[in-house]
Write a structure and sequence with these properties.
Elements (H helix, E strand, L loop, with lengths): L1 E7 L6 H8 L5 E7 L5 H7 L3 E5 L5 H14 L4 E4 L11 H9 L5 E5 L17 H18 L11 E3 L1 H6 L9 H12 L3 E5 L6 H4 L5 H17 L1
Parallel strand pairs: 1-2, 1-4, 2-3, 5-7
Antiparallel strand pairs: 4-6, 5-6
Helix pairs in contact: 5-7, 5-9
Length: 229
């Protein structure tokens, strides 16, 4: 069973479209309402998603792990994770699923920085400079702490195959969970694939997620926790 996990915090205005598109490729949708104060849960339920609610905002990592646990409970063998703000294109899901379905990867990372093929030739995403810097910092710190390079380690768009679904155990609650997933790859010796995908930035999506300041804070948390392990 393919289950899409969508962590969400105050995404009532955007999540309906994400759910509708994800349903084209997933058998089941799990939305983790991470302490929202708007109608995120009501909109998601109206679109047919299973809702898991955090009473308080726990962070992207906590919401993702809650979603993974819920997906396991309904029998997921493959899990897709994607953001609720619409920056990921669900039409790319089949590209990310293929390495898992072909049994050549245990986890697939989307890569917003590589060329993607929108049917008429390969093109690169136009990613704002500040996002490139923030993600670059995350990539470098992830490599320092795990010894593994992933081209877009901080992207929330991923596919977990059966082995990763069974073994993953995230303990970091904030954005640093993305680097923790890379550590899980190393510890469990998962086979990794990276697939170039489209990303759709807007003023709305730029106001959310991993900003430069959040990137610095995340990097410090990752370094601190790596020394405490």
């Amino acid at each position: 069973m393919i289950v899409a996990v969508i962590p969400a915090f105050n995404e009532a205005t955007h999540i309906a479209g994400v759910i509708q598109d994800a349903k084209k490729y997933a058998d089941h949708i799990v939305v983790v309402d991470d302490g929202s104060t708007d109608a995120t849960a009501a909109v998601s339920e109206q679109e047919g998603a299973m809702i898991v609610r955090h009473i308080q905002n726990g962070g992207a990592g906590a919401a993702t792990m809650t979603g993974i646990e819920a997906a396991r409970a309904v029998g997921a063998t493959i899990i897709i994770t994607l953001d609720a703000d619409g920056q990921h294109d669900p039409a790319d899901i089949p590209l990310l699923l293929k390495p898992v379905q072909d049994s050549i990867a245990d986890i697939v990372f989307a890569n917003r920085f590589g060329p993607f093929d929108p049917a008429q030739g390969k093109r690169r995403n136009h990613i704002p400079f500040i996002r490139r810097v923030a993600n670059g910092i995350g990539n470098v710190v992830t490599f320092i702490t795990t010894g593994k390079w992933v081209s877009d380690s901080q992207c929330g768009f991923k596919v977990l195959g059966p082995r990763a679904v069974a073994e993953i155990n995230l303990r970091m609650s904030g954005f640093e969970f993305c680097s923790e997933i890379v550590r899980e790859c190393v510890q469990h010796k998962w086979r990794v694939a990276e697939i170039p995908t489209k990303v759709m930035y807007s003023e709305y999506t730029m106001a959310k997620g991993q900003s430069f300041s959040n990137g610095i804070k995340t990097a410090l948390k990752i370094l601190l926790r790596s020394f405490l392990r």
